[in-house]
Amino acid sequence: MADAFKNVIVQSLECPVCLNTFTDPKILSCSHTYCKTCLNNLLEFYGNDQMLRCPVCRAETQVQNQDVNKLPTNLALKSLIEDVKNQYQYCTHCKSEDQPQAVVYCQDCGMYFCIACHNKHSQWQNFINHEVLAMSEILSGKVSVRRYRKCRKHPKEDEECFCSVCRRFACFRCVVIEHTKEGHGVIEAAVYESSHMKSIEDLKSKADKKSSCFQKYVDFIDEQKEHVSNVQKQCTDDIKKAYDDLVRQVTEKKEILIGEVNGRTEGVKKELDEMKKSAEEHITHLTTIADVVTSRTKVPSDTDALAAHDTLCQDLQEALKQEDPDYKQPRQSIKKGKSVSFKRNFEMDELGLGKIVNAVAKIIALPNEGSMNAMVSTSDDRMAVGCITGNMEIFSADGQHQQKVVKEGSILGVGFLSDDRYVILDGSNSIALYTLDYTKLNVSFETLGHDEGGFTSITVDSDDQIYVSYRKAKKIQVFSPAGGKAIREIPCDGYEPQEISSYNDHLITHAGYTIRLIDKQGVVKYKLKRLGHYLHAAVSQGNTILISTLNHNAGLVSIDEYTNELKHVQNLVNDYKIEKPERNWYSLQQYRSGEIAFCTADRLYIFH
């Protein structure tokens, strides 16, 4: 009887949340007691609110400044716990009245043994594999005793049943007396425990998935915040470089501009930080309450503990109803941050070097609307635009239309040789060679016809070798300026080369949503893909790679700079609104003087 009474006392010393013996017990205004650590976890889950809701009765207690230390300590309970810890445990196997002090506890037998009984117990063949705990480890708190659930009304009876309506465990005698009437639902305790643990595991799994969802959102914000920071850094670096070339009198102006950049970008970063903080708080809420619910090692046994865990499970389910993050808001903020750039003035009589601007372009309507097929920079710092009408239009860097040359056939591509001769690829896949004064030379090239090769593109490298790509044939032929047959072929395995450009000892190929950098044997070295966006590439005057990203449906173009490994360097133009043409065919080039030319089928845009 004494052992049963002691077992009841020990169960009363367990926190309803963590199911372990109370540590630093604190009392709420509703008189329920919990561990200080458990209350801290619950307060963290409920966020910045200073009201703490009791998991058992759901009454609210105000926690001043969210400091659980300020709640009253249950001194009587704390003293009782110390008394129980300090009380000797006697051997429960010895039959004599003068019981010796126990030195071990057998988890499987549920009994305490003195030295003599422990020696006998360890020699019993059937008990060799029992789990035996040293009393010193139990008293130090290193290990916990697995207690057997006994009925408080009938201490000799195990609570082998569970009433799902009353939400309590009961022995068989209590079931017969109290839980046989209509409205009660009695099941085996083991069945309830199994079902309860499964529901906890399901909640934990859902919490992990929801946390993962918000973590992806946080990672996305971090990634976009880094892009905005890169824009901020690049813009700041441009300003510093420009002003370092001037005398001290412009230093004050430089700092004003840097402050303007920071003012425009820090607001965006602050918005992103607030979104990130909100998402991280939700992750913390989810993981905290999930850990509180799932970190215990046993099923709650009494009414308060069951009520507490029912409440916590409901709280977790409510938290899981939080909608998944909406990426629209951070994208809108990011767009503001990415639009910042630095425009330099070159009028040396002005004190200021420039000002902070969004991307601007000079827009020139092409003489033949909807006819652009190709564009290439000339050796004299102009831009040649080839048209399907058979004309090649020449534009200066300031957008002036200067000439109309070559009035025959349909121009699909243009390439300039080092001696200022140039080649033109026409609609029948034929190549013609011209002099600088636009005289056609008597040189022929044995290219593939349209039926065999499909649509074509052309480029010329620094060695004056001519490259012709074929979409249908999926290969590139290489010709010398002397004409005749191709001197070799480059395979394009698995993709159609829609456009090609020469880049050092490599070629840049464009195929739909993908840019590939290949060597002159056809081996793909690097690849860049943007699903849903048309990509077009050009070589910059600084020997980097420029890539335009086209959202044709929205009529938006962005232009970025990349390394020779297709690694992003900086954003030059962000979501510039263009007049959307009917034909979704575009071209990108850079003037030798630095202006970027972006051409649609209808218009030429020159970004300074």
UniProtKB/TrEMBL annotation:
- SMART domains recorded: RING
Q: Which GO terms describe its molecular function?
A: ubiquitin protein ligase activity; zinc ion binding
InterPro entries with a match to the protein in the record: 6-blade_b-propeller_TolB-like, Quino_amine_DH_bsu, TRIM45/56/19-like, Znf-RING_euk, Znf_B-box, Znf_RING, Znf_RING/FYVE/PHD, Znf_RING_CS
Please provide one cellular component term from the Gene Ontology annotations of this protein: nucleoplasm
* Location of the B box-type domain: 86-135, 146-189
Q: Which SUPFAM superfamilies match?
A: B-box zinc-binding domain, RING/U-box, YVTN repeat-like/Quinoprotein amine dehydrogenase
Q: Which UniProt keywords apply?
A: Metal-binding, Phosphoprotein, Zinc, Zinc-finger
RING-type domain: which residues? 15-58
A Pfam match: zf-RING_UBOX
Q: Which residues cross the membrane?
A: none
Q: Which PANTHER family match?
A: BONUS, ISOFORM C-RELATED (PTHR25462), MEIOTIC P26, ISOFORM F (PTHR25462:SF296)
The protein depicted here goes by the name Uncharacterized protein
